[in-house]
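Fold it.
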Amino acid sequence: MERDINQINVIPLVDVMLVLLVIVLTTATFISTGQVPVNLAKAKETSARKDTPIVVSLTAEGGLFLNDRAVDETGLPPLLQPYPKESSVVVRADRVTLLERFVSLVDEIRGLGFHQVSLEVVKL
């Protein structure tokens, strides 16, 4: 009882591909929803970071976030106290943020003892 196989069963292949597609789409939505929407300024020169810095975001509306968690105007110093002073702090400021607000935020962070404060920008 010998018969020739002249067709390939593609149903298991389609099932596996659909499962992989669902996994990719699910993880992609988790990755993209984690950041505060900030329209960053552009610069010609940028550097790649190897460590995980403390991220302070300043939105165009004046909202303040620490590592993607909302912070009120006076709540930043107590939240930064547990971090070691050698940690680097990255400020993600919207490009339409008032310069005075940005400078006062950086001055406040440096006044808490953090000396590695930098601005995150988008490369041109």
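The radius of gyration is 23 Å.
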